[in-house]
Amino acid sequence: MIASVGMIAVASLALTLGGIAFWVLGVVAALFMMAEWSMLQGADAKTKRMTQFALSVPLALMAPASLILVIHDFFTLGLLVGAAFFVVITTRKPKLALGIIYCGLPVFALMIIRRQDEGILFTLWALSLVWACDIGAFFTGRTLGGPKLAPVISPNKTWSGLIGGVVLASAVAAVLHTQYGLPMRMTLATPVLAVLAQMGDLYESWLKRVAGVKDSGNILPGHGGVMDRLDGLVPVAPVAALLVILPHFYA
After folding, report:
1. CA 128 to CA 135: how far, in whole Å?
2. What is the pLDDT of residues 72-104, one digit of tens each?
3. What is the pLDDT of residues 103-119, one digit of tens each?
C-alpha cells in the first residue's frame, strides 16, 4: 500500500507539472517496461539494450514542444512502427519487436492527451480509471470471492472483482464529470475502458505464465516490475487518446 501511494503521488506530481516532467516519467517507465518485456521473451542483455535503444528514438520525439521545434504525431507514430520493424529484422523475433509497440504506444497516447487544453483532467481520467479499477477489483475480489475470471491465466482474479473494478472506475468518472466537467463521451466509455484495463492485466499475466515467472521484475517493492503496475494502462491509453481527440476530426 505504501508503494502504491508513492507511485500515485509521483504520477500525480508529474501530471500536474506536465511538460518535461511528465515526458521524462513516461520515457523512464517505457524503457523499464521494454527491459522487462525483453526478459519475458528470453532475450539476452545485449539484445535487451538494443531494443531499449530502438525504443528511445520515437520516445525522444514525444518530447514536449519546449524541447523540439515542431511536434509531428504521425511521424512519431510511424517511427514507433519503424523501431519495431528494426527489431524484427535484426533479431528475427516478432514477439520481441511487439514490445516496442506495447511499451511505446501508451506513452505516445498519454503525451497526446496531456497536450490538450483540458490535458490534466483528461489524463487524470485515463490514469484514475485504471487505478480505481485495480483497487475496486482487488478489494471486491478479496471480500466477495466467487467464480474465477480466468483461472488458467490468473487464478486470483474473480468475476466479482471485475464488476467491482468497473463500478469503482465508473464512479470516479461520474465524479470527474459532475464536479470537473469531464465530457459525457468519456464518462460513458469508462466502464468499457475498465474492462479493457482488466484485459490488459490478464494479457500480462498470460505473458508471465508463458515465461514461467511470477513478476515481470522486482524494481517496485511488493508490486514486482513496472509492467505489473502499468499493464492495465497499456490498452486503455490509446483508446482514451482517441476519445480525447475525436472532436478534432469533426471540427
Report:
1. 10
2. 788 889 999 999 999 999 999 999 999 999 999
3. 999 999 999 999 998 99
**3-class SS letters over 169-207:** HHHHHHHHHHHHCCCHHHHHHHHHHHHHHHHHHHHHHHH
C-alpha grid cell, residue 157: 482474479
Sign of CA dihedral 112, 118, 123, 129: negative
pTM: 0.91
Nine-digit cell string for 112: 497526446
The rounded distance, in Å, linking the Cα atoms of 103 and 93 is 16
CA 19 – CA 201 distance, rounded (Å): 28
Burial 186-211 (b: 16+ CB within 10 A, else e): bbebbbebbbbbbbbbbebbebbeee
Q: How is 71-100 classified by DSSP, letter by letter?
A: --HHHHHHHHHHHHHHHHHHH--HHHHHHH
Burial class (CB in 10 A: 0-12, 13-18, 19+), 226: buried
Q: What residues contact residue 7 under an 8 Å CB cut-off, 6+ apart?
A: 220, 223, 229
